[in-house]
């Protein structure tokens, strides 16, 4: 009989919290630097990897934005997306809802259309070749003013049918959700789902603001919700999905050790927690690596894995019929236990 770990690794999965810029592996970064005649300030792949020693979210973001400089052309964004989806498929990811940060690129003079067309091309190839489905979630950078986010939304409008949702990421502390109330109201008025990073490094109050002011459909991270009992009850009652990224949280020192992670508490209190990889190239952790690290720390049983992986399909932004098909396939998979 397969072990809970084997069942989890081989199960069909959805990934709901994934920054495409965070999938840039050093090998691809150097290949794109060469293709675009750019010098990366690191003496080779090993030296770049050695820099992946982060003390907090900001120390990671500084490197993440610096490396994104190698992304210049539509082909670069296509290759990035395709490389991620190829790798995710090895972990049996069948559906990915992918964040992208247009401001990181438009600020360098890369047109919005170049970014979007490249990412779409990669997603279309993965769909044609492997049947994988992808959605694109445009994230606003919260360390910049809301006016910049509004200008980015205006740039996105001609492509609105190709954008499946909106999000909020980058430096959390000092940039509460309240700062983005107007732009999120406009995104919702467009009929799009909205999400926001909250309660990663920031306090539970940021999660409450994201719910009350931005009216988000999902919380990205949310792992500090456990510090507020009333908030935990609300998240459980309303089944607000949390897109949890365990290896990211350990690598960015939200938790010193995986055994201190709050994922077991979230699940024990019946929150709709999901498992995701965030920025897998930087955290040494794609979906499968996250599953292995969580299992090493918590030794979840088959029922817990079934719940955790089904939550991701439930929380996805695809139509109900497709969700039901995926959940039925997952149920069949776990019936092997
Ligand atoms: N951008 C990329 N990864 C992020 C994270 N973990 N938190 C906030 N912004 C991000
Ligand atoms: Zn994230």
From TrEMBL:
Active-site residues, Swiss-Prot/TrEMBL: 200 (proton donor)
InterPro entries the record matches: A_deaminase_dom, ADE, Ado/ade_deaminase, Metal_Hydrolase
Family annotation (Pfam families): A_deaminase (PF00962)
CC per GO annotation: cytosol
Details of cofactor binding: Binds 1 zinc ion per subunit.
Site (Important for catalytic activity): 221
GO molecular function, one term: zinc ion binding
Adenosine deaminase domain residues: 12-330
Cofactors, names only: Zn(2+)
Biological function: Catalyzes the hydrolytic deamination of adenine to hypoxanthine. Plays an important role in the purine salvage pathway and in nitrogen catabolism.
PANTHER family: ADENINE DEAMINASE
UniProt similarity note: Belongs to the metallo-dependent hydrolases superfamily. Adenosine and AMP deaminases family. Adenine deaminase type 2 subfamily.
Protein name (record): Adenine deaminase
Organism for this UniProt entry: Candidatus Dactylopiibacterium carminicum
């Amino acid at each position: 009989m397969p072990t809970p770990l084997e069942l989890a690794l081989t199960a069909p999965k959805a990934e709901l919290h994934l920054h495409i810029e965070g999938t840039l592996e050093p090998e691809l970064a150097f290949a794109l630097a060469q293709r675009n005649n750019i010098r990366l300030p690191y003496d080779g792949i090993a030296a770049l990897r050695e820099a992946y020693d982060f003390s907090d979210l900001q120390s990671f973001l500084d490197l993440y934005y610096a490396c994104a400089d190698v992304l210049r052309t539509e082909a670069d964004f296509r290759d990035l997306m395709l490389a991620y989806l190829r790798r995710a498929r090895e972990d049996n990811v069948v559906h990915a809802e992918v964040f992208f940060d247009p401001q990181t690129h438009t600020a360098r003079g890369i047109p919005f259309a170049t970014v979007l067309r490249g990412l779409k091309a990669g997603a279309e190839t993965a769909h044609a070749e492997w049947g994988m489905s992808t959605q694109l979630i445009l994230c606003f950078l919260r360390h910049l003013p809301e006016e910049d986010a509004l200008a980015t939304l205006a740039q996105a409008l001609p492509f609105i049918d190709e954008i499946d949702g909106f999000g909020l990421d980058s430096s959390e502390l000092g940039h509460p959700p309240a700062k983005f109330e107007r732009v999120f109201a406009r995104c919702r008025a467009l009929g799009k789902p909205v999400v926001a990073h909250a309660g990663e490094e920031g306090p539970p109050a940021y999660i409450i603001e994201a719910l009350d002011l931005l009216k988000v459909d999902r919380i990205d991270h949310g792992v500090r919700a456990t510090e507020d009992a009333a908030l935990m009850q609300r998240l459980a009652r309303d089944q607000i999905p949390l897109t949890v990224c365990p290896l990211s949280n350990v690598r960015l020192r939200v938790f010193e050790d995986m055994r201190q992670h709050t994922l077991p508490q979230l699940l024990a209190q019946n929150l709709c927690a999901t498992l995701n990889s965030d920025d897998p190239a930087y955290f040494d952790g794609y979906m499968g690596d996250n599953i292995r690290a969580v299992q090493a720390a918590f030794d979840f049983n088959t029922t817990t894995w079934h719940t955790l992986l089904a939550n991701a399909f439930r929380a996805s932004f695809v139509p109900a019929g497709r969700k039901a098909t995926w959940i039925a396939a997952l149920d069949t998979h776990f019936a092997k236990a």
